[in-house]
Amino acid sequence: MRRRSKRYAEIAKSIDEKQVYSFADAVAIVKKNSENTKFDESFEISMKLGVDPKKADQMVRGTVSLPNGTGKDVRVLVFAKAPKDQEALDAGADYAGLDEYVDKIQSGWADVDVVVATPDVMGVVGRLGRILGPRGLMPNPKIGTVTFDVAKAVTELKAGKIEYRVDKAGNIAGAVGKCSFGADKLEENVKTFYQSIIGAKPSSAKGQYIKSLFFSSTMGPSIAVNESTIK
């Protein structure tokens, strides 16, 4: 059985597990419960979707640009030849190049959060699939990380563009900011993430799409949220 910290237990006592909180109240509670922590916790949102991810036409996946960013310094690696590698660096990429970083990754290095690649080098990058794939780092044209417009991709990622994908159990989650953000900024980010999920609803999905919705901080308990109060 997983053991919880005393702090977690105390916070959990203040939350009624049977209650479904309003959007604004849930944001306020998560923010309050994250006070006096040793680090700035992420504000996380999770949903249970009424889809069957085993069916290809019910896969929910996409990207969304959060208006107030994530509060995280995203480390971006761009696989590209000259002059695209310099374009990426000028746009704010942390690393850019090709052979050097292919060798580093094959040697075990992966100190990045997102990997972007230009289409002309995917033949080389594809050989790293067994390493990058399990870590969720493999560039993919469907989410905009395989592109010749590396400057735009890097700028968007640095500004708060995140990826989401439903898991095998039909759950989808994302960190949409830091608990230190003002309530108005968190609410705006949550609404943007929520609307993106709504917009990604598969046409083949029937019945209730969002079955449950929860907010939490990195180290805190989840709070059930009334979906209608977000709308």
Overview features:
9 strands, Ribulose 1,5 Bisphosphate Carboxylase/Oxygenase, alpha/beta, 231 residues, 2 domains, single chain
Q: What's the gist of this structure?
A:
30% of the residues lie in helices and 20% in strands. By secondary structure, it is α/β, with parallel strands linked by helices. The radius of gyration is 19 Å and the shape is globular.
Report on the structure:
The protein is of the alpha/beta class and 231 residues long. It folds into 2 domains: 19-70 and 161-229, 2-Layer Sandwich (Ribulose 1,5 Bisphosphate Carboxylase/Oxygenase), CATH 3.30.190; 76-158, 3-Layer(aba) Sandwich (Rossmann fold), CATH 3.40.50. The protein is 30% helix and 20% strand. The protein has helices spanning 6-13, 23-33, 84-91, 99-106, 122-125, 129-132, 150-159, 183-199; strands spanning 42-49, 61-65, 76-79, 95-97, 114-117, 161-165, 171-178, 210-217, 223-224. Strands 7-1-8-9 form a 4-stranded antiparallel sheet, with helices on one face. A 3-stranded parallel sheet has the order 4-3-5, sandwiched between helices. The chain has a two-stranded antiparallel sheet with strand order 2-6. α3 links the parallel β3 and β4 (95-97). α3 (84-91) packs parallel to α7 (150-159).
